[in-house]
Each structure stands twice: as C-alpha cells, then as structure tokens.
Amino acid sequence: MAAIEVSELARTYRVGKKLRRDGAKRDVQALRGVSFDVPAGQLFGLLGPNGAGKTTTIKILTTLLLPTAGTARVLGLDPARQHRELRRRIGYVFGGDKGLYERISALENLRYFADVYRVPRELKARRIDELLEVVGLKGRERERVETYSRGMRQRLHIARGLLHDPEVLFLDEPTIGLDPVGARELRETVAALQASGKTILLTTHYMLEADELCERVAVINHGQIVAEGTPAELKRRATGKSVIEIEAFGVDELVVERLRALEGVDAVSVEHVDQAQLVAIQSQHGPALIPALLAALGPITVGRVVAREPSLEDAYVELVST
Amino acid sequence: MTRAFVTGMRVQITQMLRSSFDLIAMLIWPIIYASIAYYLLDAKETPHELLAASIGSAVMIMWAQVVIGSSGTLDLMRQAGTLELMVAAPVPFVTVLAPIMVSTSAFGLYGLVVTLVWGRVGFGIPLAIVHPLAFAIAIPACVIAIAALGLIVASTFVLYRAAFSLGIAMQYPVWLASGLLVPLSALPGWLGPVSWFLAPTWGFRAIERAAVGGDAWPSIAVCALASVAYVSVAVVFLRVFEHLARQRASLKLA
Fold this sequence. Notes:
The complex is a heterodimer of chains A (322) and B (254). With 322 residues, chain A is α/β, with parallel strands linked by helices.
C-alpha cells in the first residue's frame, strides 16, 4: 500500500476585499486535479515554482486545509475526516525561521512540543537528547531560540518534527534561506532519515537538492502535475537538447521575451549572479544558435558563452516554462 | 493532556515574563486602574466602598489580561507559525488554548494584590477581609471562570486574523455589562440578564462579598457552574472554528 495517495485533488481559495462596495471576490485555483502516489519508505520530491501549489498540497495532506475536490489518503487515513488519528502519525516541518517559540530555549520548545505531540513521558527526555544530537544542537539547547541562526532554527524544526517518531514526514522547502553549508548539513540529515525507513514528501524549488535526495519527483505548475518520474527520467526529457549559457549584464524582461521568440529556442531562464545575469537557453540546435542569440541580445555586454548537456534544472525549467 | 496543559502554562508564563513590554504593562496597569477607581469614586469616608472599587478594578484587570493577553498570544502564534503546528498537534486544541487563558487570568491575581496594597499605601484603605476562607476560594473561582469565558472568546481568534483588535474591542463591553465600570442599577434594565451570563459579574460579587461582608458562597457556586458551562461551549466552538479555519485557510497570516 502506498503511504500517500492523492487523487484529483483540487483546492480553490476565495480572495478579495470584503469592504469593497462591489464586494468583488474571485476564486483562485491553487490545485487543479493533482494525483500522485508515494510508496512507503520513499523520498518523494514535489517540485515547482512559487505559487505552483506545493504548500497547498502539503497542507491538505497534513490536515491543515480541506480540499474542495478530490481525495487524499495518508497511511490509509483521510486527512480531511480522520485528522485526529492521522496527526499522531505524521510530522510536518516547514522552511524559514518561523514555527518556534522565540522567547524560550530550544530545550523548552522541544519539551512543550513533545507534550502536545503525545510523546510518552518515559521516552521524552531520551528522545529529545537523541534528536538534539542528530541535528547537531547538543550543547546549545539551553539558549533562547531568538538568538539562533536560521540554520540552527531549521535544524531545531527537524528535531521538533521528529519528536513523536512519525511514519511520514512532510518537509516544505526545508532549506529555504539556508547558507550552502547549512543546506548541505540539512540534506545529510534528510538522507539519513530516509535511510532509516521514513516516508518523506519534500517540496523544493532547488533542483540540486531534488536530484541529490529524491528517488522520484513530480513537477507541479499552476496547480497541476506536469511531469512525474525519477530525476534521471526527467533529465532524459531534455535529451537531444543543448543548453547555451550566456553571462550578460543588464538583461531585462524585454530581452528575455526577445530570446524566447527566436526560432529554435525551447526555454529561457535567468539567474542573477552578482552584477551579471546567467541566461540559460534550451534548444535542439545547439551552438549553431549562438549567433542568433547574441544578435537578439543587441548592445548588452556579454561575458562567457558556454554550450553544455542539460541537467534536471534544465528539464524543470522547460516543464514550468510551457 | 495534563502534561501538555502544565507545560503550556509554564511556556506561556515564561514567555510573558521575558517580554519587557508585557511585564511593564502588567506592573503598571493595576496601579493606574486602581487610582482611576479611587478618584472616580471619591468615597474617602466609606472605606468599604473603596475596597469594593479596588476589587472591581482588579477583576477588570483580570478580564483585560485574558482578552488582550490571549488575543496577543494567538496573534503572535499566527505570525510565528506556531498556531498551525499546534492545530496540527494530536492533542485537542483546547489543551493548547486553556493554559494561555489560565495563565493570563492568573496574572490578574497579581493585579488584585497590587490593587489592595496600593489602596492601603496610597489611599489608606483598610485591608480587613470579613470572610477570609470565602475570600481565598472566591479568588481562584473568579480566575478560572474568567479564563473559561476567555476560552469562548479565544475560540473565535482562531478564525479571525485580526485577533488582537478583536481582543481589545472585547474589553469594554464586558466591563460595562458586568457592572464593573458603572453600577448595573445605573444601566438599562435589559443589561441585567446579560450580566448573569458573564463570569466577571459573579467573580466580582464573590470576592467583594467575601471581603466587605455578605454571602459569597452562591456567587462562588455560580462561578464554578459557569466555568464548566463555558468550557463545554468553548470545546464545541473550537471544533467548529477549527473546521472553518481549515476550510477558509485562515490559520496562517499570509
């Protein structure tokens, strides 16, 4: 049996200004029929840009939101109706520096969460001690959380989410805002958890993270799953294409649109690196397209130009660009 | 559930003591309220009336602490992202909310002590308690009843993002309808039955009668019965509001 089963899940938010005279409210469809399964013990990645529907999916699965249509099962339980039974068996960790009591220490936080997550009294102290060791906060546990760095908070979050030894762990962008070293340490912790047999649903928009950790991934965009498979399978979707990377200075949205409009260009993404922009263009034409690309850039100063094989990130960019 | 309740109390009290703003407000409020009550009443010749006024101002502080303290705490929890985690916890949410209510209400005890001491030191009000046993029982009965009423109000804070504003708005109507600001005899008759449903009315009567003379026990009994009724209503409200919050996605600030 799959640990997580999601079928045609939909969620609509009603948004608008209540005080406006016209009372104008509109419906925003955050999820439009999402379906996927996660077998027990698997680390499954849900990838997508901001606003794609990743967090909405996780919130429905962790009982915090009700779906407007479709069904979901976690460990055989319906998160909408059997939320009380399910909450004992799942853990939820989200990214960023929120979700902790700031004015008390890490130890006080863990003790309180252990009690509300019904960790048996005889196990509580040992469990907290073990988890502090696992997340590398041993020796700092008596310091107030408000003095912690973002990385330390994030590790404390993981410890909190594991207190009641959940069978399924939901990690919502756990490395967001972490420095590279902190993010790497956290990835190691997540990998160790997966090795210990936990089922993990991870949302992220860092492709490197998904490639390194996930056995299977699904890409969600505009509330719909647009691709699903192993990271290798997704990379193969971009096979036969080349990626041309151009380091440029002063690329704006108009220039990006100009590049997208060129014949033979499949997808364009821009990454800001210090003062420069790294423009990645996917195409089946390979380096032969470079003169046309440079012409489209016009008077913009261009640095390095490289042609390379596509990565998972390129496959992802192509999927979410269409 | 008991462990979660006790730890919740400890966390709430620690958090309040570690906020200099909360602490200063808590220290100063009773003195200001008591002073206003003494000067408004202007009854230097009738010390028992001044004692009743100081008890009234202490009960006002208890209610203010409950609605402002709890709404502020829930606002903080919503902003800090802990509200979602607590709603997602296996224990019923009332177990998380009740310690917040009881600890904020218990801070009103400090208000009572400061009010009485300030009345003695600043205005020469004698601290003669007529029925000490009833007085000792009336105080916790009042604290628990006010906390339990606060639980009903706080259940709505789960649903609404403007919890703090709602908390502030809840102060005066209850003060007024309980006869704490103005004697009920001076208010429209229809407010009388409203006051019967409010814990501060009975809490004040219980403490006042125990202090200045009169039968405090019926009011103490009403406090106890009202506490049970309030908690029962709050449990139902919390279930309904939690469901609505999950439907409307209102647990998070963003």
